[in-house]
Amino acid sequence: MAPRVLVTGSAGQIGAELVPHLRSLYGKDNVVAAIHTSPGGPSLRDGPLLTLDTGNQAAVVAALKEYKVDTVYHLAALLSATGEKNPQLAWTVNMDGLRNVLEASRTNGVSQVFWPSSIGAFGPDAPRANAPQNAP
């Protein structure tokens, strides 16, 4: 049986590539693309698409239940340039959003949560495309 997947931050750099790939593996109806403010591209609209604020734990719980999610890829985040302009928003999105996804997943039977890093973990001199794992 295919997993039921929720991808937060689907309109971002990683999510926009991950959602179509996961849909090709598990079927388009089994992968829910969650966006916040960006409408996302056509590939996100080729299956379940949800507007979700991960800063709202009740909304996260509702999404997990509605779509019977068992796997979450939590990609919703603000990079440092935006976060430095609005630290409170960065805290809400990056920290509260993660806590809400983890807690909602724990209490609602989600078996896997993936929380990858981003290009923001590398320095400004790292290659923009295909940055190697040992980039400064």
Could you provide a short overview of the structure?
This protein has 136 residues and is of the alpha/beta class. The chain has helices spanning 15-26, 57-66, 80-85, 87-107, and strands spanning 5-8, 31-35, 49-51, 71-74, 112-114.
Word description of this protein:
- With 136 residues, the protein is of the alpha/beta class.
- It has a domain of 86 residues: Rossmann fold (3-Layer(aba) Sandwich).
- The mean pLDDT is 91.
- Helix 2 crosses helix 4.
- 36% of the residues lie in helices and 14% in strands.
- 30% of the residues are buried.
- Helix 1 links the parallel strand 1 and strand 2.
- Strands 3-2-1-4-5 form a 5-stranded parallel sheet, with helices on both faces.
For the sheet with most strands, the description reads:
5 strands, parallel
- The proportion of residues forming helix, as a percent range, comes to 25-40%
Task: Identify the strand order in the major beta sheet.
Answer: 3-2-1-4-5
Structural class: alpha/beta
CATH class of the domain at 7-11 and 13-93: Alpha Beta
At the fourth level of CATH, the homologous superfamily of the domain at 7-11 and 13-93 is NAD(P)-binding Rossmann-like Domain
- Please provide the count of β strands: 5
Rounded average pLDDT: 91
Radius of gyration from CA coordinates = 15 Å
Number of helices: 4
CATH architecture of the domain at 7-11 and 13-93: 3-Layer(aba) Sandwich
Q: Give unreliable regions as ranges.
A: none
What is the terminal separation in angstroms? 41 Å
Q: How are the elements arranged and paired?
A:
Elements: E1 5-8, H1 15-26, E2 31-35, E3 49-51, H2 57-66, E4 71-74, H3 80-85, H4 87-107, E5 112-114
Parallel strand pairs: 1-2, 1-4, 2-3, 4-5
Helix pairs in contact: 2-4
